Amino acid sequence: MVLRYSFHQIEEKNPLISFEKICVTLDIDWACDEIIEHSIKLLEEYDVTATIFATHESSLLKSLDRKHFEIGIHPNLASSDNYEKTIDSLLRIYPNSIGVRCHGCLQSTNIFRLYIRKGLKYDSSTYIPLRENLYPWWRLKKLVCIPFYWTDDTMFYSGFSFDSSQLHLSNNGLKLYVFHPIHIFANTQSGEHYRKLKSFYHQPDKLINLRGKHGGTQTLFVELLRYLQEGNVESYTCRDIYREWIRYSKDEQ
Ligand SMILES: [Zn+2]
Description:
The protein is α/β, with parallel strands linked by helices. The protein is built from eleven helices and ten strands. It binds zinc ion.
């Protein structure tokens, strides 16, 4: 893929790039199936498609309808002494994955080269909080970087109230939301709340009793799903965004 525009020229063309799309993504972070299922049921109830970044083998994730749910991989490279082995083991479980978001957002040029060598097409590990007019970009000419706009843990650590204005839905550009099934399930409300429930991470029967009673992460997740459903706003997977960016890049050549 040869780009006609330098980075600087693309920046100048910014007003012409319109990426008015919303993506809902889940980082699984080793949650058990019962906890993941809670998020999946909400997505199904509101008929919202999503991209799910998987950390481990899950019979639930493997059984999902690929028309509505895209599965990418979510390797923990910061704790890995062999990046290639870690990525290979996830790709063996989810061989059709074309996307990756690294747990903890770890990234480097060598990691991007490894993704490309493994056949991955896009990376979504770059966090650009609440920035307007976001759109993807190329890295090493072969990897599409799809930035994320909003994440649930930033929200509950910030201490803001859990009303829908905190989703910043009126900003222009690509808005990619990151949620974690554990925080949806527990309706996590603050860093302190998360510290309390963390020791029951894999015990949904105990977590239920520790669920946030009022506003929390699930509140905002449902607000987002309701906004999409009631406004008839289409949600996109990261794979859709990747394809759109490929189309855009070809048109520009
Ligand atoms: Zn993660």
